[in-house]
Specification:
Rossmann fold, TIM Barrel, 2 domains, 6-stranded mixed beta sheet
């Protein structure tokens, strides 16, 4: 079968720019569509074409004409969900393809895609279940696959119960990195050093922060790839000196993280590595990060989230500001750079912005990235704030818009936020 996999274009919208003429966050990350490369890796025996509309925004029609698909798979984040539907409906007008929606938003709010233009929804990890769907469709059988539902706008989606396991990772099937080779020079992480390649070492998370949608991908489980598979993927990206481990928490299993660090060293890869970690993991296991510094860990991404313990508690972060500070000290003593993620709540007042700027100015965080608290459908935060949401258009769910009312005058809120954000980024560029 001919299978077309589609990564949507950059399509989020900006309230600060549209309503107030305020310059908003500029894109500094553009990474390869690893989710689709991973899906493609388990589609041996089929013809696969991957279209990355972030790298080639005008290429969809040309690809459909040159590669008429039997199946079209579309993935995307919440802010891309409307565009995913638009793409699906356009495909239906020019082809007879069966259209499948998957990815982050489909895992958080699968019912959103139960509409004309979409035939099936894959919720959660799709590397195995999408292949099972393809096999069923090719054989002419009615699919009955855990995590997959047939669309019928006249009734709610019906999913067969799913139990996630290591089998969902299809560990022996490597991502099809070759499918985006022509765009390789466009995949950059300018905040930490330019061109990069993506590798996944684990899926899911060990914690349940109220704002986070990551547990939806794995039914709350934390699943790790084998050390052999991870090192193999890193070797495949031979031309990429910088590797971004895209896991929510590369160090969620300490024993596995130790084995991986040693495996990378023994392989002689000599890659520069960017990886996510919780600050309490750094504090509780400093020797692990000495090992990973030797393995090539150049930059750690940490979700500090807030600069006050009360707000951290309200997010179910199960962490403390003093732990965040201790982690900064440990990582900087090892020569590891820090990207710090922070959350700006719509109920911020000027004093809250000042407290955040003071924290950043008094601690050596190489790239601070403040995002606006956004209740993504399917998260505990969404269920808590659902009645307060005033902007339902998902195009604005970019984490740089307030979709619940701001306590300050909205224009003032965005002016302070955008000024702070641009100041943080300008500091990095110097």
């Amino acid at each position: 079968m001919k299978i077309l996999l589609i990564n949507p274009p950059n399509c989020g919208r900006s309230i600060p720019e549209e309503q107030y003429g305020i310059e908003n966050m500029k894109l500094i990350f553009r990474g390869e569509p690893l989710a689709l490369e991973t899906i493609a890796g388990n589609l041996d025996g089929h013809e696969v074409c991957l279209v990355d509309l972030k790298a080639e925004p005008e290429s969809l029609q040309k690809n459909i004409e040159e590669f008429p698909p039997d199946i079209a798979g579309i993935t995307g984040m919440t802010c891309e969900a409307n565009t995913m539907l638009e793409i699906a409906r356009n495909i239906k007008t020019v082809s007879n393809a069966t259209v499948v929606a998957g990815g982050w938003h489909a895992s958080c709010d699968p019912g959103f895609f139960n509409t004309d233009g979409v035939d099936y929804v894959v919720a959660g990890l799709g590397k195995l279940s999408f292949r099972e769907l393809i096999d069923a469709l090719e054989s002419g059988k009615t699919p009955d696959i855990p995590g997959v539902a047939a669309c019928d706008p006249s009734r709610p989606l019906r999913f067969t119960p799913r139990r996630y396991s290591i089998k969902d990772l299809a560990d022996d099937k490597a991502p099809r990195y070759d499918l985006v080779e022509k765009n390789r020079d466009k995949y950059v992480m300018s905040g930490v050093g330019g061109k990069m390649g993506f590798v996944a070492s684990a899926f899911g998370c060990t914690h349940r922060c109220f704002f986070c949608s990551i547990p939806n991908l794995t039914g709350g489980k934390y699943l790790s790839h084998s050390v052999q598979a991870i090192v193999k993927d890193m070797k495949t990206l031979s031309g990429m000196p910088l590797i971004r481990l895209v896991d929510a928490n590369t160090f969620g299993d300490i024993e596995t993280a130790e084995h991986l660090g040693r495996g990378i060293i023994e392989s002689g890869l000599e890659k520069r590595i960017v990886a996510d970690v919780r600050s309490d993991t750094v504090v509780n296991h400093p020797d692990l990060f000495r090992l990973w510094k030797d393995a090539g860990l150049e930059t750690a991404v940490i979700g500090f989230e807030e600069v006050g313990d009360e707000r951290l508690k309200s997010y179910n972060k199960k962490n403390a500001v003093k732990t965040n500070i201790a982690a900064i000290e440990i990582l900087k003593s090892l020569g590891i750079k820090i990207i710090g993620d922070f959350i700006v709540s719509p109920d911020y007042e000027p004093k809250d912005f000042e407290a955040l700027e003071k924290f950043v100015s008094t601690h050596p965080i190489d790239l601070p990235l403040p995002s606006i608290l956004t209740p993504i459908p399917g998260t505990p935060l969404y269920r808590k704030l659902k009645d307060r949401i005033t902007i339902s258009n998902l195009d604005y769910y970019t984490f740089t818009n307030a979709v619940t009312p701001t306590l300050m005058a909205e224009k003032e809120f965005y002016e302070i936020y955008s000024t702070m954000l641009n100041r943080f980024i300008a500091h990095v560029r110097r």
